[in-house]
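Narrative summary of target 7.
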Amino acid sequence: MKRLVAGAAALAAAGLGVARWAAARGRVPAAAKDPLESSRWLGVTVNRPPDEVAPAGHLPEPLAQVDAEVRMNRAPGDRGTEIYARPREHRAGADGVLARLRGEDPRTEIRTALRETKSLLETGDVLRSDEEIATTRPTLPGKVLDMALGRASEGGRL
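Modeled conformation, tokenized:
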């Protein structure tokens, strides 16, 4: 019975994916709508004063390891520091979309570095999940979950 339910769920997810793909075929890709997307600043607010964020002008380790332009401002209302970063190299059009699908987009590295920087400065450690999710045997839903958890820090709002 469990196999039947799992199979039906997988089939429904695949059908939904095909339907969304078919509906999106007529739309213009997001990168084509905004060719400057890959050169825009990504930002995060850290609950620390600027002198603690970059003492003596040294960037925190996660940001120092990526090839990015970085700027910092005092957050409004004296609520910490705003950190902004963007990639030094510019990728526009289809190349940027393909790079993101392959996991080679420089903005992905910058998003991850900003998240790790915020976590490191506010908690003293880069937070990760406590334990890996494991099943007794590899299944399709388990593989999808593993993939989603592996790329969770790369996207979304900061």
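The mean pLDDT is 76.
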